[in-house]
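Weekly modeling sync, notes
Attendees: S.R. (lead), two postdocs, one rotation student

Agenda item 3: backlog of single-chain predictions. S.R. asked that every request posted to the team notebook include the full sequence so nobody has to chase files. The rotation student volunteered to paste the first one in as an example of the format we agreed on. Action items at the bottom.

Example entry:
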Amino acid sequence: MYAFSRAVNSMHSEDVKKLMKQASGKNLISFAGGMPNNDLFPVNQIDEIYNSLPDDIKKLCFQYGPTSGYPPLVNSLRSLLEQKGLTVGNNKILITTGSLQAISIITQEFVNEGDIILTENPCFVGALSVFETFGAEIHSIPIDKDGIDIQALKRKIDSLDRTPKFLYVTPNYHNPAGIIYSPERKKELLEVLSGTGIILLEDDAYSDLYFSEEEKYLTKAMKSYGVEDVEIIYTGSFSKILGPGFRLGYMLSSEEIFEKAESVKQALDACTSSFMQILANEFLVQNKLEPYLTFLRSEYQERRDLLQKYLNTYMPKEITWNEPKGGFYIWLKLPPHIKSTDIFNKSVTKGVVFVTGRTFDPAGKKDDRLRLSYSNMPKAQIEKGVMILSEAIKKVLQDSEMLLSEKG
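Predicted structure, as returned to the notebook:
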């Protein structure tokens, strides 16, 4: 028997491992994977970029780079973020190995075992696994269609005997809930945090994947609001754009936070892959990003529309959901007397998988929802997948009603 550390006992880490296995399972119709479809990756553009690189840059691809990031990519990102309205001038960018590493670095930078972190409920499971690994005490706040419940957040902050280290939120096309915070809710959130000393960790992996140009303004980052008495750390990712295999993310923070974060990263992996940073930088400077994003938005909207259509056609009336305006996910709400885990156990035997609601509850208990991802789904499989899923739900509903009538 090994004397493992407490850090390896994250319940949500086990969920993540299971999720990655389900997402890539062969012969399954998978609504589980919150990842792009392989057929959408910019393979030809990346081939062209690499083949056109001069030899001295190709050699750099194989070398260590600065811990803070490949300087040309940092400059390109600065321009990109400024176009989104973020003020980079007084802040610094740290390139990370995926945005999950940024979340991990920030947690390591601020959290000692037993410190409090506030999250949404539901919450991105990858972040939960990080917070648990560092021994944080997690307190979660419910969300509705417009964002975090402001009154519940106020009550939670007032009830605590010590100041939380930070509040972690995913305001744009939330994973798993698919919602986007309203501008009013973002402002209210900043007002609540004002003067509390609670840092806001704004995780923004999906804001480029809006479906309507008219609604692009909704994706405006809170870090760009110019609020001076709330410390905001902003994280972003190339995973949902160029591809998760790039393992490229970044964080934007004040210089003091950046300096400590850079030291943490140095101890973790010395630097993020120079190869991937150079390719990503060329993708940006050669102006390939916006045409590619236009293509992705159209593809994901088409998949969203198909999933929405078949949910409306086949789902029993007891099941409800909000139509997402972008991103990857639809979050189904179940009647309170059935559990998504029971539905999963039936649907998986018929070859359909999704992610249970319990996975995204910081306490690992609330199981009245299920997440469907349309991003990785071949369009031709969506209808069949929804039909099988709806049959599984109907069966669980029938079993539940029989049980209730027997008890009655």
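Discussion: group reviewed the output briefly. The CA atoms of residues 153 and 327 lie 25 Å apart.
Action items: rotation student to repeat for the remaining queue; S.R. to check formatting next week.
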